[in-house]
Amino acid sequence: MSNPSIPDGLVFIGRINGLFGVQGWVKVFSHTRPREAIIGYSPWLVKIGGDWREVEVEDGRAQAKGIVAKLTGYDDRDQAGGLIGAEIALKLSQLPPLKQGEYYWAQLVGLEVINLAGEKFGKVSHLFDTGANDVMVVRNGNERWLPATGKVIREVDFESGLIRVDWDADF
Known about the structure:
Elements: E1 10-20, E2 25-30, E3 44-48, E4 51-55, E5 57-63, E6 66-71, H1 77-81, E7 87-91, H2 105-108, E8 112-115, E9 120-129, E10 134-140, E11 142-147, E12 153-157, E13 162-165
Parallel strand pairs: 8-13
Antiparallel strand pairs: 1-2, 1-7, 2-6, 3-4, 3-7, 5-6, 8-9, 9-10, 10-11, 12-13
């Protein structure tokens, strides 16, 4: 998942969406797979008052259908309350290296999509998981959903900012 307010070089991984208990723990909506993997990344870059700040993750765990985390320097409910709604990002360098031909979703957002015939489809807005496969949402006045699979995505060229797809413009 990507977010337009995230600077280049950072990857959006979640959002702080509530408080948990009275000792500064927060509820976290995670975009990592599996969702509890977010706890293993530290420090987080958290957008607080318009600025990105590094915050260490002291502890965390899966809790019901979500994730809860204890962040260094946030020791009571009042302190942690200022974090509600804050975006969580990582530096791309904090993520595990990928195999040849694999990409993080955040790397694809904003790239121009064209088919093999050279027809422009627009730019990648975001991606989502259907359970069966990932879907790339491309916008250019209208919205087009393309399966984000190796059969459809034929080339990702970061230098030219292009994704070449095997997809009919009329589909």
